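Pipeline run #58 for the internal structure catalog. This entry was flagged by the ingest filter as a single-chain record with no existing model, so it goes straight to prediction. Upstream metadata was stripped on purpose; only the residue string is passed forward. Reviewer on rotation: M.T. Logging verbosity set to normal.
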Amino acid sequence: MADLTRRSLLTGCAGTAALALAACGTATTAGDGAPDLETLRLTVDGGFTTAAIAFRTLPVLTLTADGQVLTPDPVAEIYPGPLLPHLSSRDLDPAGRAALADAVLASGLITTPPPDFGTPGVADAPTTTLRVTLDGTETTLAANALAEAGAAPELTAEQQEARDAFRALVDRLRDLEGAVGAEHLGDPSPYAPDSVWLRAVPAPTEGVPEDPAPTVLPWPVPEVVLADLDTPTLVGGEAAQSVLSALEGATELTWFRDPGADAGADAGADPGAGVYLVLARPALPGDRDDAGR
């Protein structure tokens, strides 16, 4: 995905590890007068995967500025799966936000400069990235092969200790109720995005599955031209809602025919000119144009 550009359309590890990490830089710690946690985003992406999976991978955890916690919904292990991934949203109260801030700060990883996690000799592994904003100051922690590397010989003792602390923090963030207390989280509800990231590529003409076979449908949002979506594109406004409605119920084997192409093919026909495989994911608060993350 590093070669893809973005453009807009229509709109817990405290104690000795923490002490060792703090010695490598100026540490921000929990306690009285600690900074407020404004936003947080945890992602695990990259590595050996397909472009489609990489594009549709959502953050593991997102805390928005208005106190929403967004997490991807579980996906049944069936094929074809849903085309559009979904998320759930829960409100996090101020006490829960403070507890989450304490968990982040107690790791000892929020230092200036950030810890050095080293580069283990593990090929094609994903990168774990945590981006947090505390009192307007953003810190980004990124470690390749965090779960896969283990005690890699290429790492120094300090780098290994930093990675151990990062793994412990990630484990805490994945267990959100355990980290902040279930009483500080509201009931989950479906996340309703205001915009959507799209990319469209011509449907393959070779190696097309036969059972189940793709279904070809007319693209019902003519103001969003599939031929123009050769790079990941952010669609907002009324067009986004039309796109989201069109994709609801679609699967990974739902292909779409551009309205400008030959309209003579019926649903279920073999792919031809003007037929596209559409990739989509909901836009989230804090997405960035350079990576949509």
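catalog note: The first strand starts at residue 7 and ends at 9.
catalog note: The CA atoms of residues 199 and 279 lie 5 Å apart.
status: ready for reviewer M.T.
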